Queue: 4 jobs
Job 1
Amino acid sequence: MRQIVCLADQPWSAVPTRTQQLMTRMKDAEVLYFEPPSRPGSHDWRKPGRKLRPGLISYTLPPQPTQNATRRIFGRYTANRTVHFLQSKLERHRFREPVLWCASPAGAEFLDSIAYRGLVYDCFRDWPDYPESWESELAAAADVAFAASPDLLRHLSPCNPNVPLLPFGCNYPMFAKDQLPKPQLLQGIEGPILGFAGTLWPDLDLEPVLRAAQAHPEYTFVLLGRDRGCRMLPRLLQEPNVVVPDPISPVDLPDCLASFHVCLHLLRRERLYDDVIPPRLFEYLAVGKPIVAMLSPDQVEHFPDVVYGAHTSAEFNLLCTRALSETGTWARDRRREYGKAAAWSERANEVNRILESIGLFS
């Protein structure tokens, strides 16, 4: 049986993260999933492991100093406690030289403390809160470093010659369904529904939606997601054809997306040049509905044949109308092909294939 020790970047969540999606799909594997350190004063790390799936158990690491701590102030006692904690769990579950999977640069702190047969670094975002040397050390030591975007691939390549591209994915079977019921929160809405699904971050650029809502009072614009202090949201809510429901359960999301006539993809002003394709865009593709997406300056379009890409609010407005007039099934079917290719099962199959090819999985 294959053994994997995963040093995760986030606690196990009801809304699966990238790391969760991959760990639950590792073939013939036992996985010990270590959540990031608990907050100071917490005793979560003393709790028994949680059996999340057959062969997958989760633990929480002991509290540590802040992520900005350097090795000099990391704290010998705290470091030794964490190492002892990790080693005790590996011994308890009889893990002998497992594959070590690191989902953040924090894993660099434990490379000399855990016996492992192979090292994987999964890089799916920038890590400005960690010392740059941590990621460099981790990437250089890795047998393979997965990159979620071309920019991240170029970032890692000087440290490691084995950096395959592994974009995010989606739960394709959950979204690629026809004739899903219209959810209660959208009942009673007349006319076309143009919807955005995602967190309403402070820097989310809602200017394109505002201009389109003002130009087309006959359309209803629905924003699904938790408000994290979006600065433009109060202004947008002044428009009578804008609806922002209470946050919904993830299980209700496919029904909502299926009820949209057009799916909207927006940009964050502080991340204009982030080339990581978010999971939500793959979910839009799996649904098959027309997609109007804002593009950053000089961005290379990822799916130009099936996504209406706009660079300005005026263009976004025009493309919303064009997307609503789309006919036939070719574009819908093509989108679903892209969504199917991005299924998490396909992403995990690629990971398994690569790890087998370099001898980490035998």
Job 2
Amino acid sequence: MNARVRLLLSSYVPLFSVGVVRFDDNRLQMVLGFLVIAGIWSLISLIRVSTRRVHPREARPTSVRDLSSEVGAYVATYLLPLMTVPDPEPRDLIAYALVLTVIGIVFVNSDLVGVNPLLSLWGYRVFQVSGVRKLATGGEADTIVISRQRIVAGSTVKVADLATGVSLAISHTEDHQR
């Protein structure tokens, strides 16, 4: 499964968890419960693979912007509109699926891919960083870097790539030499 899709699935874990508690239909609860487990497993395995099998590389960010505050807005985007009916009709479920699909497409194709409530619950922060990813043309592209610690421009960061434009900080040190 594509890493961006795995990040999307895991970002929906809080929503699916609320659905398990909120919805009355046992079959729907089971499906959502399965999606909760799949989302958690997907994120754990993605992090494990990136930290064990992917060769990390060192990078020196030139600019850093903390995106962690955007997690709340992302959760509100999908959570509030979808949790109003405890016993949804088939039309409600279709509408929910359409909304989640649209949000998912935007999520996977944008910088939101690293904005993940499950990562936040596990103590990770999300940063938009320049200077970590080089383009074939020689220029730099912004990268989403997920880290347990704050990243500072000019520091040395060891990163493992999760997906194109998304990396996990394995370790970093602050260098004050510029």
Job 3
Amino acid sequence: MRLGGATRRAVMALGALTLVSSASSAPQGGTKLSALSRLEPGLWQLRDLDNPAGQQQSICVADPSALLQLRHRNAPCSRLVIADGAKAATVQYTCPATGFGRTEVRVETPRLAQIDTQGIADNAPFSYRVQARRIGVCGQGGPSTR
């Protein structure tokens, strides 16, 4: 049986919500992962690895778990931990009315991480890889992610 596009999206969304609600999940900011605990808070520079000529973005990260939701930054989301190791973590998250995603963070040093994320945001798919590098302390009035 073939499902139409709208029906298929509804089934996928329902499946994702069921998965998240049936597993132990944590609200944004409440996810304490071994790998992320190695990262230092501060000013982080994000570089798109799939588009080297693209602009780099700097964000202030008070809690390193903010790096799990780069595309859904500051959205209230529930999270499901898929894997939690000393050097890597994978999380799936769902944000009511705004989408969902799956992110893997590989920690190379307390100031360097590789992030691979994909999902749906604003009714469109996204997928990208980012190198995150801590470049200093956060200044007042700059971009902020908690």
Job 4
Amino acid sequence: MKEVVLGVTGSIAAYKAAEIANILVKDKINVNVIMTTAAAKFITPLTFQTLTKNKVYIDMFEEIAYNDVRHISLAQKADCFVIAPATANIIGKIASGVADDMLSTVVMAVKNKPVIICPAMNTAMYENIITQNNICKLKSFDYQFVDPKESRLACGDLGKGALADVNKIIFAIKKSIDEA
């Protein structure tokens, strides 16, 4: 069975990650979800746990009752690692090598596996030169991106920054798994 690690960050688009997880599970792909603390403010871990039938990871320092180093084992067993939605914050952390939570730590441990990043943020944040430089930097390291779409955003602005269509994200995940 193929394995996907789905990272979910603190964006209003976090609810769409549940649809991504659900589709992957229905397609017989095992999904392990890692949420940031901010993501859990938008959608509960129980939603993902119910859909995937797997424990949801948030706290890097929770007491463990197993014999492996979880952030390493999750990175090693994944056929594909996807972050949807990906905030400017997580993109900046990864581009800077910051590993200070479960999600950023696992991403840093991914080796020779596809990492797909699906940005979702306000247009001004997405177009900010720092965010764009971070995206370019990650692309130069072979991170893949599913670009956001132009839409009416949660703040009311119209512009590029809305999470890409779920089907487009699913297509990118399946393509990367097939090529792996």
